[in-house]
Amino acid sequence: MCLSALNPNTRAIVPGAPKVQQTTELQRPLQIPIHPQLLTLRTSQSTLEHHGTGYDLTNSVFSPDGRNFQVEYAVKAVENGGTSIGIRCKDGVVLAVEKIITSKLLKAGANKRIATIDRHVGAVSSGLVPDGRHFVSRARDEAASWRSTYKTPITTKDLASRMGGYLQAYTLYSSVRPFGITAIVAGWDSELELPVDGQVGSGPSIGSGGKVEGKTFGGPGLYMIEPSGLYWGYYGAATGKGRQTAKAELEKLDLAALKLSLQDGVKEAAKIIYVAHADNKDKEFELEMTWISNIDGPTKGRHQEVPKDILEEAENLAKKYLEGEDDEETKDDDKPAEGDKMEE
Amino acid sequence: MNHLPQAWGRPRDDIYGAYDNSYLQSHGPNQHTQQPIVTGTSVVALKFKDGVIIAADNLASYGSLARFTDVKRLRTFADTSVVGFGGDVSDMQYLDRLLNSLDTEEAYSSSGHTLNAHNLHTYLSKVFYKRRSDFNPLWNQILVAGLDGESKPFLASADLLGTTFSSPSLATGFGAHLAQPLLRKVAPDEEAAAKLSKEQALEAVKESMKVLFYRDARSLDNYSIAVVTKDGIDLKENEKLEKQSWAFADQIRGYGTQIN
């Protein structure tokens, strides 16, 4: 250990073990960006040699410039996954995922990728599908444990926080690997005054009861959680292979104004998945889409699949839009990839 | 007294011998629910041609004190079933949460299948039987009303002992003595129940609730009533008894010989 730490070009040699070839460059892909400031700090003239000295072999190990390479490799797994998006609308939230059809023997519509947590939250992820399932399983446990403690549904924000913490824990130990997914968690927190679970009666009808007059709670929630455990709230979120294109489309929607209706959000989501897939045309795909509306909307605060007729309508619009784009022949697909690495 | 705080307030060791700390531990049997505390009274239910009607009043009593007067004792499940609870209200709350988590977990399996009233009754009766076998009963008698796997009206009872039975009409507690005879007049058997119209059934149930309010000292004139049919559940939680007859009371004087 000491040996390898002192001399970047030597690995600790175990007597009798076959000699390890010095293929430092091949240990990991080379396109990992290096902060320019760090470059200037280096004393060694070859930065790449410096990197390949085992800092990327173990989870939870800091590299000399303070990075966890194993987590960054997990991000690479995400970048190969099908595109997932989420859109936060005025009266609900939409989730959509592009499912690449790897075989004609797969039954259409059978293999669901978007899962429900409790009743009011949906989750979708890009990357390793089994890791996504593990994520959902844990999220359901968290939601159930929240209910047993507080007798009320977990808010989207609290669930995102707990799941962020869970993923982060998988960057702390060498005995586990980070999650190979970026998950999008969407929910609608009821703005109604819900009874607590199992409540009987309505309590005193007079007195303040600790309520603030005119104050409302709840609303849409949309969070994206990365393999590092980092999560933010988003107006619109995208991850997976087509995230760049999807992000560019989401930015056009002015979601921050919170004016987009849920019905339009569904159409936009379908369009974005179709547009994002256009870079990957040789493969067939299936669109899976779910939504959560407020109590007055079509799902009454629950997370549900978008009904078939509405989904088909949205898909037809998306296809039409793509045809229109092809006619114009004004493609400028190869925009420089920006914001691709994990934020700090 | 000495300088050791842990000895303060305790019998002196030098006089009474070392304090036997085992007295602080309880070595007896676990004390489970020995009796109900806050209770709901009767639940009544009746099958008819297209479904089931179930009703229970909105009172939770604390002994003879009518302590809580807006307690809803009918709980819906999965848009096809209603459970009516009699007996201990805290155990009812526990069961309500249990059903809530059951409903949530059922929805996770993507089969699209939901539990019908028959499944729900089986589940609850097994919960009751397990608990009484652990000598820790849930102090309730419940009625499960809804539609079974063939979308036919379903009505059955389960109680703290794990006992189950089914009938075209059912009532718990006081209702078993006062309401059942009235309901059996309109639906003596399954054939008769299968011919009952919704209006006839509603009238019979409302009449039963009125008789129960007349004669059950733990009852209330505010009640909840639910009608379960293929079209869904019509649950009303703030009904008031109508057309009570008290005018005759003016004519009653004394207990025998008193004349005005």
UniProtKB/TrEMBL annotation, chain A:
**UniProt-annotated stretches for the region Disordered:** 319-344
Q: What are the entry keywords?
A: Proteasome
> Which spans are transmembrane here?
none
The record ties this protein, via PROSITE patterns, to:
PROTEASOME_ALPHA_1 (PS00388), PROTEASOME_ALPHA_2 (PS51475)
Superkingdom to which the source organism belongs: Eukaryota
**Which cellular components does GO assign to this protein?**
proteasome core complex, alpha-subunit complex
Q: Write down the SMART domains for this protein, in alphabetical order.
A: Proteasome_A_N (SM00948)
Biased region (Basic and acidic residues) positions are 332-344
Proteasome alpha-type subunits domain residues: 55-77
**One matching Pfam family, short form?**
Proteasome_A_N
Per the UniProt entry, what are the Gene Ontology biological process annotations, in alphabetical order? ubiquitin-dependent protein catabolic process
Q: Work out whether the entry's keyword set contains Ribonucleoprotein.
A: no
Q: Which family does it belong to?
A: Belongs to the peptidase T1A family.
What's the protein here called?
Putative proteasome subunit alpha type
The organism is Lachnellula subtilissima
List the gene name: PRE10
UniProtKB/TrEMBL annotation, chain B:
Q: GO terms for CC? A: cytoplasm; nucleus; proteasome core complex, beta-subunit complex
Q: What does this protein do?
A: Non-catalytic component of the proteasome.
Q: Which InterPro entries match?
A: Ntn_hydrolases_N (IPR029055), Proteasome_beta4 (IPR016295), Proteasome_bsu_CS (IPR016050), Proteasome_sua/b (IPR001353), Proteasome_suB-type (IPR023333)
Q: Where in the cell is it found?
A: Cytoplasm; Nucleus
On whether Cytoplasm is a keyword of this UniProt record, the answer is yes
**Which family, according to the similarity comment?**
Belongs to the peptidase T1B family.
Q: Which UniProt keywords apply?
A: Cytoplasm, Nucleus, Proteasome
Please report the organism this UniProt entry assigns to the protein.
Answer: Lachnellula subtilissima
Q: What protein am I looking at?
A: Proteasome subunit beta
Q: Which PROSITE patterns match?
A: PROTEASOME_BETA_1, PROTEASOME_BETA_2
Q: What is the lineage of its organism?
A: Eukaryota, Fungi, Dikarya, Ascomycota, Pezizomycotina
Gene Ontology biological process terms in this record = proteolysis involved in protein catabolic process
SUPFAM superfamilies to which the protein is assigned, alphabetical: N-terminal nucleophile aminohydrolases (Ntn hydrolases)
